[in-house]
Write a structure and sequence with these properties.
Order of helices and strands of chain A: EHEEHEHHEEHEHEEHEEHH
CATH class of one domain in chain B: Alpha Beta
Largest interface: A-B, 35 and 37 residues
CATH topology of one domain in chain B: BirA Bifunctional Protein, domain 2
Largest sheet of chain A: 6 strands, mixed
CATH topology of the largest domain in chain A: D-Maltodextrin-Binding Protein, domain 2
Distance between the termini of chain A: 32 Å
Helix content of chain A: 25-40%
Strand content of chain B: 15-25%
Number of strands of chain B: 14
Shape of chain A: elongated
Number of helices of chain B: 14
Radius of gyration of chain B: 23 Å
Number of strands of chain A: 11
CATH architecture of the largest domain in chain A: 3-Layer(aba) Sandwich
Strand content of chain A: 25-35%
Oligomer: heterodimer
CATH class of the largest domain in chain A: Alpha Beta
Number of helices of chain A: 9
CATH architecture of one domain in chain B: 2-Layer Sandwich
Number of domains of chain A: 2
Shape of chain B: globular
Strand order of the largest sheet of chain A: 2-3-1-4-11-5
Helix content of chain B: 40-55%
Order of helices and strands of chain B: HEEHHEEHEEHEHHHHEEHHEHEEEHEH
CATH superfamily of the largest domain in chain A: Periplasmic binding protein-like II
Largest sheet of chain B: 9 strands, mixed
Radius of gyration of chain A: 20 Å
């Protein structure tokens, strides 16, 4: 029996539109997919497109429910090492460009660098008001970055959205967040630290390493990749 | 078999010196560790959540377990702990999350003689058990702090060097930074200066993300008043790096440090340190200014014991007078302890 090649694409927003546009530009005809979470490329070997949350695409590639997909580099790097080791990055795409950054309230004029932040974190500790709280949707990347920069007296507050308002609603003191133009941070009276860029992200074509170990799938994945000129 | 023989023999030797062998609780509340050490330690804890959302961890370290036991059960006076048990951490090595930990702690006393007592006890026990000669390395972390205090540096940088002494890798980065770039970004600084004058008109007690306006302005002013010269930064970095290379016989340590003081025109206030008055049974002792940088909680004397011919580390420890309070004790309770490097012991 011929195996279906399972393709994961982001299910909403600009990532979805840009991913579909990359395929269409390369003359891969996609079955209408405006409402469905399932679709397919009409002019290619048996395949199935599954529209999922970008974070979920990473997990499904890792457990091999998907063979190939498009998702964010930031989300891949945020995932656990056990997930990352099962995924191969094929190429970085020219959309979904964004930076994961450390931002502090604009009015903290004495804080320009992570070194300043490190001092502030000890002020919090010494005043016994608890640890400096960092709100983020990216706890793993934030931890890795902050610890490497000497900051260790802080506490992560996991956020699911609207992270920018956390410092002004008593939920955290600072944030790490993804930003493409910096406008949302600015509008929320936050500023990026001088040395506060954690990661430069973009959309990526990713492949499940397990699929690459299957001759048929590897062959078909390579054919699909050949068709996609970036 | 060898493992059992060594652990039983060591615990018996400790018992003879008045140490009480204790088994600690397997599970501790994660909050106790995280509140103390922050996210850096959280990563290495083996944790789980109960139905009420409370987070618990398998004990990550038996020195911490001894401290928690003292706070909960002993509460006052001097208590001598000895233990041989397992600790659980993600960071031990790739093969195992479990480490056998054998050690002893004296909690509740700051007496100087305890410093040599605990080193002599571990050293003599190891020699008796393994029939090997040993070498001891000593240091007092406060000598480094005294060096930092005597350097011409902004106070912020002094604190920074002290805080990161126990993280050698990051400390090296700090040294590089000290001898190169500036702390202030000029263009941003000019913008912030405008904000500074606007902020002076605001209510100084109003809080922005956990900080008072007055605190922000006062730290901003401090930064301007304490500019760091790059030339001086280079000199300071060289002095600190030279200091951390001092490794000499313990007998000559004070002289070596005096020479270092003279060469760099510093005053380390060496007469304030009682490490030089300690007496040991072993003659083969060195002073090494670079040891004791593996645990954040050491506050004074630190030691390492090696098999003489092979430089194989057999034990290490030190004084940790602030740890008890950070783990929940209501007041400062001094303590000193040491742990046997059990894996290396079994290699002998």
């Amino acid at each position: 029996m011929t195996k279906l090649i399972k393709i994961g694409l982001p299910s909403k927003g600009r990532l979805k539109e840009n991913s579909l546009s990359v395929l269409r530009k390369n003359k891969l005809s996609i079955k209408n997919s405006s409402r469905n979470y399932l679709s397919k490329i009409n002019n290619f070997y048996p395949n199935e497109i599954i529209f999922s949350h970008a974070r979920e695409i990473i997990e499904r590639l890792a457990d091999n429910s998907l063979d190939i997909g498009i998702s964010g580099y930031d989300l891949l790097k945020e995932s656990l090492p056990g997930i990352q080791k099962n995924i191969q990055i094929i190429s970085r795409l020219k959309f979904g460009l964004a930076e994961l950054v450390v931002a502090v309230p604009d009015i903290w004029i004495d804080v320009q660098t992570i070194a300043d932040l490190e001092e502030i974190s000890f002020e919090f500790k010494d005043r016994n008001v608890g640890k400096l709280r960092v709100a983020t949707k990216y706890p793993n990347l934030s931890n890795e970055f902050l610890l490497s920069k000497g900051l260790n007296q802080y506490k992560i507050v996991n956020s699911l959205g609207s992270t920018e308002v956390y410092p002004f609603t008593g939920q955290s003191e600072i944030v790490t967040d993804i930003t493409s133009t910096g406008e949302t941070l600015k509008a929320n009276k936050l500023r990026v630290l001088k040395d506060g860029i954690i990661l430069k992200s973009s959309a990526c074509i990713l492949v499940s390493k397990k699929s690459l170990r299957n001759k048929y799938l590897k062959n078909k994945i390579n054919q699909l990749l050949k068709k996609i000129k970036l | 078999m060898k493992s059992k023989k060594y652990s039983e023999a060591l615990l018996n030797l400790f018992k003879k010196k008045g140490f009480k062998v204790k088994e600690f609780e397997n599970i501790i509340e994660s909050k106790i560790i995280i509140e103390r050490s922050g996210e850096i330690f959280k990563k290495s804890l083996l944790s789980f959540e109960d139905d009420n959302g409370k987070n618990f961890s398998l004990r990550p370290d038996l020195t911490i377990s001894a401290c928690l036991d003292y706070i909960k059960n002993v509460k006052k006076g001097v208590h001598k702990y000895a233990y041989f048990d397992q600790a659980y951490r993600r960071t031990f090595n790739k093969e195992s999350l479990v480490r056998n930990q054998l050690g002893c702690e004296i909690i509740g006393s700051a007496k100087l003689q305890l410093n040599s007592e605990i080193i002599n006890l571990i050293d003599e026990s190891l020699k008796k058990l393994t029939k090997n000669k040993t070498t001891i390395k000593l240091n007092d972390i406060n000598i480094f702090y005294s060096l930092v205090d005597s350097l011409k540096l902004p106070s912020r940088w002094r604190l920074r060097l002290k805080r990161h002494f126990w993280r050698p890798e990051y400390f090296s980065e700090l040294m590089l930074r000290l001898s190169s770039n500036s702390d202030i970004q000029k263009n941003v600084f000019e913008l912030d200066k405008k904000s500074y004058f606007k902020m002076k008109k605001l209510n100084q007690n109003s809080m922005i993300a956990g900080r008072k306006i007055s605190e922000i302005l006062s730290r901003f002013q401090k930064k301007i008043k304490e500019p760091r010269s790059q030339i001086n930064g280079k000199r300071v970095a060289r002095i600190v790096n030279d200091f951390l290379k001092i490794n000499c016989s313990f007998k000559n340590a004070k002289n070596e440090l005096r020479k270092f003081e003279e060469k760099n025109n510093l005053n380390l206030k060496l007469n304030n340190f009682d490490i030089f008055n300690l007496r040991f049974k072993n003659d083969d002792i060195y002073f090494s200014s670079n040891i004791g940088r593996n645990a954040e909680y050491y506050t004074g004397l630190v030691f390492e014991i090696y098999k003489k011919s092979k430089s194989l580390n057999l034990a290490s420890g030190g004084r940790y007078d602030n740890l008890m309070q950070t783990l929940g004790a209501s007041k400062k309770i001094p303590a000193i302890g040491g742990a046997i490097n059990y894996d290396n012991l079994l290699k002998l």
